[in-house]
Design a protein that fits this description.
Elements: H1 3-30, E1 39-47, E2 58-61, E3 67-69, E4 75-81, E5 86-90, E6 97-100, E7 109-111, E8 120-122, E9 127-129, E10 137-141, H2 142-145, H3 153-157, E11 164-168, E12 177-181, E13 194-197, E14 200-201, E15 221-227, H4 230-233, E16 244-249, E17 256-270, H5 279-292, H6 299-310, H7 320-324, E18 328-340, E19 344-356, E20 363-378, E21 381-395, H8 404-410, H9 421-427, H10 437-443, E22 445-462, E23 467-486, H11 491-495, E24 499-522, E25 526-549, E26 568-569, E27 573-592, E28 596-607, E29 616-627, H12 632-635, H13 638-643, E30 644-658, E31 669-671, E32 676-679, E33 682-685, E34 688-691, E35 700-713, E36 718-737, E37 746-769, E38 773-791, E39 796-799, E40 812-815, E41 822-825, E42 828-831, E43 862-864, E44 879-883, E45 888-898, E46 901-911, E47 914-917, H14 920-924, H15 934-938, H16 955-958, E48 971-973, E49 976-987, H17 990-996, E50 1000-1014, H18 1029-1033, E51 1037-1038, E52 1045-1055
Parallel strand pairs: 1-7, 13-16, 47-51
Antiparallel strand pairs: 1-4, 2-3, 2-5, 5-6, 8-9, 10-15, 11-12, 13-14, 15-16, 17-18, 17-52, 18-19, 19-20, 20-21, 21-22, 22-23, 23-24, 24-25, 25-26, 25-27, 27-28, 28-29, 29-30, 30-35, 31-34, 32-33, 35-36, 36-37, 37-38, 38-45, 39-40, 40-41, 41-44, 42-43, 45-46, 46-49, 47-48, 49-50, 50-52
């Protein structure tokens, strides 16, 4: 490992961040000499027809960054304008108007409603008119996603963007959010998109809890743009393989002043329940299973146990889902300000959120503060600052006891809620010292606190109408602290005489950037924009964890500070890593008469994650656009000219990288473990090489071809967007077997390849547009199909992931020519109704769980297919039994307004995907003390129910190997149609608002997770558990995730 080169790159990166700061200061000091003679222009913007003032319209000097926003009276004043320059008046949902400045000092404007193609979209290091885009970019403004008053961005975004899956990791308060864009592009490297907040790229993590969408307040966001095709993401190089999510927070505006106060309160409850057996039915079923499984051989013992149970007080029996679940509450309070003068603009928000989960003692609290400022230091020099602080706390045993919801669902109703595992074992048979889930939720003390400070400053200097330069520096400091105490009422705590854990995580993310840009229109037909960017990023991380045990006091977690508690301190665990990246970007946009569009970019990245010889990567992209509607032959057809506002064809190609691998993966590592070396008569600790050096490892490369069409018709009341793409990842990182003579088993190499193909279509329209009634709707469909093209010298790989109580051994199939996301196991044919013995091939005497040799299979035993026809059933008969990939996904969003009442509805759907229900075994659990699903038990095989479709009692005891191998009984159809949000808003009429001298007063009632139509038997078909490699390539596995709640929320919003 070349530490010298690594340290040189890191030192160089930090030095260049400092250099960026010095350049910014130089620009500030030298800017005064560029001032020009200018004047101010004032006026009023009104809507044509109604003559009402337009609030919040942008007035900008064309080709410059000089712009203002109209105030609450539709008025504006823009300074530093020269005669001959053009003022551009724009507003989302309205026609853009251009006015040339002459000798006048006042320009009033009338704007038509209806045109959307001049909407400005953030595309990375720049903004572009939507009509000029050549790549696949989807954007949502706050007006589009805040109409349902979401408390999380998952609620705001789900089903609204084609080709994008937005998923909660689970339904826990503060649960993480995962976004997948155009399928999985890798097997072993990360699959998360890059998040960029106000230009600051956040470190990429596959941990859903680290997604900024999980913690940022939706009210702080102005817009979200998602870059989907590689030609758009290529400007982010090695970080753009999985797409880019650009988050722009709200900014202040000149000429306006707005204070907003918002209060939200809601109640949540379990949206869907799984019917389980009550206490009396459970007891009958339990003892019947025990007898039929052979554990109880006679009725006398049955009667003895029955008497023992019923001699206790039946009123103490519990139904644990009712006991452990509750109606949760949600509260959110926000105060914000937006406004400013021509010189200073500000946007500030304070947000406080408190959510109690539907499981007792689980919750999430969040405090969020952000302030954005723009200060005009000189006529052509602007300082932009962005500061934010976010504090959140996740609490509850759920975060550390991941299987607790399965325990709640299946826990025996015969157990009083106060009993600990010891009392359960003393009073009931065959319990295995099971913990009481109610005691877990009540007794385990767990909290996860996180604090994140973010700040950045940017200087923008407009040299003249065509040239600008800007430089910025930013820092993000995340810190986390985890505390947990498990008392002696829980078995793990009892075994350790009390067990406490303390862990901290801290980070430092720094960024420096310098950008120069040129914009000019030549001869009124040639438009050219060129930008050059130099960027340096450094990320540092430290972790610490410590365990304490053997407490002799009842102080709980605080006992670690008390010398009298006598706790035992285990050896701590620590880690440290530092990653640096240097980048250069050159990008250009050209258009001829706004008709022919050309975009090209090149990015170079150097990353300390890789060896010095493979540290740099180069990522080009190019795109073409043809606005057919601007052609003369098109305009000569009167119907087309009248009804088609925009018809554009797009073609693009690009390359990006994926560096989401662990740092230092190229380096040789040493480990100590417990090995020793003998010297003379003694032994001393020894080190050994645990991983061989691998200097050739590099990033995966993804290339993509994208073709698209944009069509806007009937005064832009109908909008259609279509994209077709082929995305191929090569040099994919895979483990390759090594000869034994090497001394190592495997090494990671860039040898694989996978392809994704698909289409996306979005159709939106204004269906009705009357003075008192409007109705608009947008629907989207998308489909993605993956295919493994190469696995190096191998044709297939078998990986494993645990699925409930079933073994996770080799149940994930990755095979050349097949898609990713395949579940592999035995195909169940039905339930046996006669004695049979053809299972001699499964298991061995060394594996008693699978051992079936010389055994006769009883009635009610599952029958598996002999797929290879060799006359026996064994592991060679495994086949593909499930595919978690949907055939297509989509969404529908519709908005209606009648006078002062508004209705918003959001739907999403998925079709053709399978779900691996890892809870099946625990819900059936024949011959076990755990409770059973009423549905499974009703249709289980019995002698008097020979047509039962589920495994009969005793099958588990006779041949437990059935669940050691994944099988098709776990696989269910995961298709669904879900109504995510339903919101009704009552908005105060405008005449009353004017009389009261306020801007807006609105009361909104929202239902989240309204209904779900599905054949899936679990809580919810949208499941995603875990973020490990195998969990990413087989995401549709339900292993008792925290269930989704249905929320009823009231919100009052007041603006003045």
């Amino acid at each position: 490992m070349n530490l010298k080169d690594l340290n040189n790159l890191r030192a160089d990166t930090e030095g260049r961040i400092k250099a960026v700061f010095l350049i910014c200061m130089f620009v500030l000091v030298s800017a005064g000499g560029f001032a020009q003679n200018t004047k101010s222009i004032s006026g009023t913007v009104r809507e044509k027809g109604s003559n009402e003032t337009v609030i919040g319209a942008t007035v900008q000097v064309k080709g410059t960054h000089n712009g203002v926003i109209t105030n609450e009276n539709g008025e504006y004043t823009i300074k530093n304008v020269s005669p001959g320059q053009v003022l551009v008046f724009s507003m989302i949902g309205m026609n853009t108007v251009e006015k040339t400045v002459g000798s006048q000092n006042r320009i009033d404007v009338l704007m038509d409603a209806g045109v959307l193609i001049d909407e400005v979209v953030v595309t990375g290091y720049q903004t572009q008119r939507k009509v000029d885009l050549t790549g696949s970019v989807s954007s949502l403004s706050s007006d589009q996603f805040m109409q349902t008053n979401p408390l999380s961005l998952e609620q705001a975004l789900k089903g609204k963007i084609s080709g994008v899956q937005v998923m909660n990791n689970d339904g826990a308060p503060g649960g993480g959010i995962t976004i997948k864009i155009r399928g999985a592009s890798s097997i072993t490297a990360g699959s998360s998109p890059l998040y960029v907040i106000d230009g600051f790229p956040l470190p990429i993590s596959d941990d859903p809890l680290e997604s900024p969408l999980a913690t940022i307040s939706p009210d702080a966001i102005e817009s979200i743009s998602i870059l989907k095709d590689v030609s758009s993401t290529a400007i982010y190089g090695a970080q753009g393989a999985n797409g880019v999510v650009l988050i722009t927070t709200k900014k202040g505006s000149a000429g306006m002043s707005e204070i907003s106060v918002k209060a939200t309160y809601g109640i949540s409850k379990l949206a869907n329940s799984i019917p389980m057996l009550g206490a009396e039915d459970y007891m009958r079923a339990y003892m019947r299973d025990m007898i039929m499984s052979g554990r109880w051989q006679n009725a006398d013992f049955y009667q003895e146990y029955k008497d023992q149970i019923w001699n206790t007080n039946p009123s103490r029996f519990q139904f644990y889902p009712d006991l452990c679940l509750q109606n949760g509450t949600k509260q959110n309070y926000e105060v914000s300000y937006r406004g400013g003068t021509d010189r200073i603009q500000n946007s500030t928000i304070f947000s406080l959120m408190n959510e109690d989960g539907i499981a007792i003692n689980t919750g999430f609290k969040r405090f969020y503060f952000q302030t954005n400022n723009s200060i005009k230091l000189l006529p052509q020099l602007t300082l932009n600052t962005n500061l934010s602080y976010e504090h959140n706390i996740r609490s509850g045993a759920f975060w550390t006891e991941g299987n607790i919801f399965n325990e709640i669902q299946t826990f025996s109703p015969l157990v009083p809620k106060e009993w600990t595992f010891q009392e359960i074992d003393d009073n009931l048979y065959y319990t295995g010292k099971m913990d009481n889930p109610y005691r877990k939720l009540k007794d385990i003390d767990y909290s996860n606190k996180n604090n994140t400070f973010f700040g950045q400053a940017e200087l923008v200097y407009n040299i003249n109408d065509n040239w600008f330069v800007k430089g910025g520096i930013g820092v993000r400091i995340p810190k986390g602290e985890v505390k947990e105490f498990i008392p002696k009422t829980i078995q793990r705590g009892y075994d350790n005489n009390g067990l406490a854990t303390y862990a901290t995580q801290s980070g430092l993310n720094m960024r420096g950037v310098v950008q120069a840009g040129f914009n000019k229109v030549f001869n009124k037909v040639h438009s050219l924009s060129v930008n050059a960017v130099y960027e340096a990023n450094t990320n540092k991380y430290e972790t610490f964890n410590q365990e304490y045990s053997q407490f002799n006091t009842d102080l709980g977690w605080e006992g670690i500070y008390d010398a009298k508690s006598g706790n035992h301190v285990k050896s701590p665990g620590v880690s440290y890593e530092k990653i640096a990246m240097l980048s250069g970007v050159l990008m250009a946009n050209y258009s001829y008469k706004g008709r022919y569009l050309l975009k090209a970019s090149m990015r170079a990245d150097g990353s300390s994650k890789f060896s010095p010889d493979n540290r740099w990567g180069f990522f080009p992209s190019g795109a073409l656009g043809w606005r057919v509607s601007e052609e003369e032959f098109f305009k000569n057809v009167s119907w087309l000219e009248k009804n088609v506002n925009n018809l554009k064809l797009r073609f693009s190609y690009g390359q990006v990288g994926n560096d989401q691998i662990a740092p230092y993966a190229y380096a040789q590592t040493l480990s100590s473990s417990q090995r020793q070396a003998i010297f003379g008569d003694g032994a001393i600790p020894a080190l050994y090489t645990s991983r061989m050096a691998n200097p050739e490892i590099s990033w995966e490369v993804t290339e993509e071809f994208n073709g698209g069409l944009d069509l806007d018709m009937f005064n832009n009341r109908l909008n259609i967007s279509l994209d077709l793409y082929t995305k191929t990842t090569r040099d994919m990182l895979l483990e390759q077997n090594l000869p034994r003579t090497s001394g190592f088993g495997k090494v990671t190499r860039n040898i694989g390849s996978v392809r994704n193909r698909g289409f996306e279509i979005s159709v939106g329209g204004v269906l009705i547009d009357k003075k008192d009634f409007t109705w608009n709707a947008t629907v989207n469909f998308s489909s993605n199909q993956s295919k493994v093209l190469s696995l190096g010298a191998e044709t297939q790989m078998l990986e494993g992931r645990p699925v409930g109580s079933a073994s996770g051994s080799e149940n994930v199939l990755i095979k050349k020519g097949y898609p990713l996301g395949l579940f592999y196991g035995l195909q169940m044919e039905g339930i046996r109704s006669n004695w049979h013995s053809d299972y001699n091939g499964i298991g061995s005497a060394d594996s008693p769980w699978w051992y079936a040799t010389e055994r006769e299979m009883p009635y009610g035993f599952p029958s598996f297919a002999d797929t290879n026809g060799d006359g026996k059933v064994d592991m060679s008969d495994r086949v593909v039994i499930g595919d978690v990939n949907p055939v297509f996904i989509g969404g529908l969003n519709t908005r209606l307004r009648w006078k002062f009442i508004e209705l918003a509805m959001d739907f999403s759907w998925s079709y053709g995907n399978d779900i691996i229900n890892g809870n099946v075994y625990n819900l059936m659990n024949n011959g076990d003390i755990r409770n059973k699903s009423a549905v499974y038990y009703k249709d289980a095989w019995f002698a008097n129910n020979p047509t039962g479709t589920f495994t009969g009692p005793g099958a588990i005891d006779w041949s437990g190997y059935m669940w050691a191998a994944s099988n098709s009984e776990m696989v269910e159809d995961g298709s669904f149609l879900k109504m995510n949000n339903l919101a009704v808003t009552f908005r105060m009429p405008k005449n009353i608002l004017k009389a009261w001298k306020i801007k807006d007063l609105a009361l909104t009632y929202t239902i989240n997770n309204v209904f779900c139509l599905t054949n899936y038997s679990g809580y919810d078909p949208e499941v995603r558990s875990g973020s490990s490699v195998n969990n990413r390539i087989l995401p549709g596995v339900d292993i008792s995730a925290y269930p989704y709640a249905r929320s009823h929320i009231f919100s009052l919003n007041f603006k003045y």
